[in-house]
Amino acid sequence: MRYQFATGTLGLLALTVVVSPLALAQDSGWYAGGNVGRATTTIDDARITSGLLGAGIATTSITDRDSDTGYKVYGGYQFNRYLGVEGGFYDLGRYGFTANTSPAGTLNGDIRLRGLNLDLVGTLPIAGGFSAFGRVGAAYTQARDQFSSTGIVVVTNPSPSQREANLKLGLGLQYAFNESLAMRLEAERYRVNDAVGNRGNVDMVSLGLIYRFGAKTQLPAPQAAMPAPAVYAAAPPPAVVVPPAAVVAPPPALPVRVSFSADALFDFDKSEIKPAGKQELDRLASELRGARFEAIQVTGHTDRLGPHDYNQRLSTRRAEAVSAYLVQSAAIAPGKIASRGVNGSDPVTKPGECKGNKATPQLIACLQPDRRVDVEVTATK
Predict the structure, then answer these.
(1) What is the pLDDT along the chain (381 residues), one digit of tens a residue?
(2) For the chain: N or C, fewer Cβ within 10 A?
(3) What is d(CA 66, CA 80) in angstroms, rounded to the nearest whole number?
């Protein structure tokens, strides 16, 4: 007895996109991931009924089991921001039917589908950390059937199996939480053969996570010792000679800039000030106590690597964290301190000093001076 998985319709994701070259966290490198979701197919009840009728047996009812949980694990390599290759193992679940007959009898059929795949994956960056992707590849599926019967129905081959390669297609949407971790939602179609000569499709919609190896945020530049903050002060005003009877006005308040290494204040990819960073800020706070503040500007900086939007948010959060700590520890009025993030738009390193765009440990270490928080104080004692 044969049964068939008829062609279904794969739900495609309709996307309205704004192209952004910085939507992907990393241009190239290895990654791994896993998805789990719902897989469905269509049981060809008409073919089952026809097969039984050919043996002189009428079908009174058929109950289908046409959906199951599916999953896949995979690894891949991203050649650039637009193209990659991916391979893995998938399990599409188990499907089947129970047919009741007249004269009295039953026919039960089950199929288990699992295999290996190799896909070419194309990616389209979208603004805000999102990207859309599509895939085309080959799926080498093992189909294992199990048939059983009662009453008038007799099964001649209860356990057929078959392995065969077929086409595999898919579309999906991806969101990068940071440069190492991302989430995927995708819909895929697997073309399969059962073990009794029929051909059909299994569609799977799944959700999963991927992890990118060697992302720059996983390789913070090592610090042998915590550097003391570098202080940049404006040049003092020229001396003024006045007559003895003249009243000398106090010199205008001048801004003083203190620059802290972001790697010394914060842990990797975090905006919470670590204990060692608080000690550095406490030293500045002790110097500021008793001064009359005109204005304090806190500016967060990142290096030029990574997505602009992500770095902008991180630099802003870090500047706000330093501002809040100084308000608390130095009793600064909140209205006199402002914070902002500027991503990597104001580097300390000079053009051509740190070459390359790939986040290697050498380039990350070279760009370390650019990752900083500047505190510019205008005050008088």
Answers:
(1) 444 443 333 332 232 333 333 333 456 899 999 999 999 999 989 989 998 998 899 999 999 999 999 999 999 999 998 999 999 999 999 999 999 999 999 999 999 999 999 999 999 999 878 999 999 999 999 999 999 999 999 998 999 999 999 999 999 999 999 989 999 999 999 999 987 888 899 999 999 999 999 865 444 444 444 454 544 444 555 555 545 544 455 555 557 778 888 888 888 778 899 898 888 888 888 887 767 767 889 999 988 888 888 888 988 999 999 989 888 887 788 888 899 998 788 888 888 888 888 888 888 889 888 889 988 888 665
(2) C
(3) 39
Asked whether the beta carbons of 294 and 378 are under 8 A apart, the reply is: yes
Answer yes or no: pTM beyond 0.70: no
Q: What gap in Å lies between CA 190 and CA 172, rounded to an integer?
A: 15
Q: Which residues of 310-326 are buried (b: 16+ CB within 10 A; e: fewer)?
A: bbbbbbbbbbbbbbebb
Q: Compute the Cα dihedral for 375, 263, 211, 85 and give only its sign.
A: positive
Helices (H), the chain: 45-54, 262-265, 275-288, 308-329, 361-366
CATH topology of domain 5-214: Porin (2.40.160)
Domain ranges (residues) in the chain:
5-214, 223-380
